[in-house]
Specification:
By secondary structure, the chain is mainly alpha-helical. It has a domain of about 170 residues: Ferritin (Up-down Bundle), CATH 1.20.1260. It contains six helices and four strands. The strands form two sheets. Strands 1-2 form a two-stranded antiparallel sheet. It has a two-stranded parallel sheet with strand order 3-4. The longest helix is centred in the first third of the chain and has 25 residues.
Length: about 250
């Protein structure tokens, strides 16, 4: 049976790292969480009959599921940079992609370390449908990946049983949501809370009763089986994943 070692409770409330740079903080926090006890053992890298890689079940399965999606995002941003960005990319846009690439690689490294011998193997992406020289194509793909990541974390949270893992997932999905909002606004300003990602309130009253409506105001989530069908479109044969055990 898989043994899960929860991260220990902090001895004291951490102080704000006001003098630490954004990148240094991300590296520091990722390393601290990994060393702090998020270690897994005993998860097999099983594949289904259709050659899909099964991420597993329970907390191990959720972390492998997240690891797979983070691999896909990290590979995407790495290729954006490898191609010297798309034609006409501004200095600000290049900086954004540099930062996002850094964040996603840190997430990948964190999950790989945390899962240890229980991690699924490295996945091979297939980005043949993306034109990395075209701004529209790159930003559309980036939005798809970021929106999918947020919906995936929120949809899989129900399967996490260990409070420590749920806390970490909440911190990572917060970063992913910031990414998604930024990319959406790069494409079309003020679309970061459109109804396709947030269940918006639809006003039914008048100006004197604002906020009345039938929405929840909550992020829209996706079940793992729905997410992997989208993600698999960008993975090569032999690297496609299955989350059928997460139901």
């Amino acid at each position: 049976m898989t043994k899960l070692l929860l991260p220990p409770e902090p001895a004291a409330k951490p102080t704000a790292l006001t003098s630490t740079s954004r990148r240094s903080f991300l590296r520091y926090s990722g390393a601290t969480m990994a060393v702090g006890g998020l270690l897994l053992a005993g998860c097999d890298d099983d594949s289904e009959g259709d050659n899909r890689i099964d991420v597993g079940s329970g907390d191990v399965g959720v972390l492998n599921y997240a690891y797979a999606l983070e691999q896909l995002e990290a590979a995407f941003y790495a290729q954006v940079k490898t191609g010297t960005y798309y034609s006409g990319a501004s200095a600000a846009e290049k900086q954004i992609f540099d930062d996002l690439a850094l964040h996603e690689q840190i997430h990948v490294d964190f999950f790989k370390t945390a899962l240890a011998g229980g991690a699924i193997r490295a996945l091979e992406p297939d980005f043949s449908t993306i034109n990395f020289n075209d701004r529209t194509s790159v930003l559309a793909a980036a939005q798809s990946f970021e929106d999918l990541g947020v919906a995936a974390y929120n949809g899989a949270g129900r399967f996490i049983t260990a409070p420590g893992y749920l806390a970490v997932a909440g911190k990572i999905v917060s970063v992913e949501a910031r990414h998604a909002a930024l990319i959406r606004d790069l494409r079309t300003y003020n679309t970061f809370v459109d109804n396709d990602v947030v269940d918006l309130f639809t006003p039914t009253g008048n100006a004197s009763t604002p906020g009345v409506g039938n929405g929840t105001g909550l992020e829209r989530s996706k079940r793992p089986t729905e997410v992997v069908e989208i993600a698999n479109q960008f993975l090569k044969e032999g690297s496609k994943i299955s989350a059928n055990s997460l139901q």
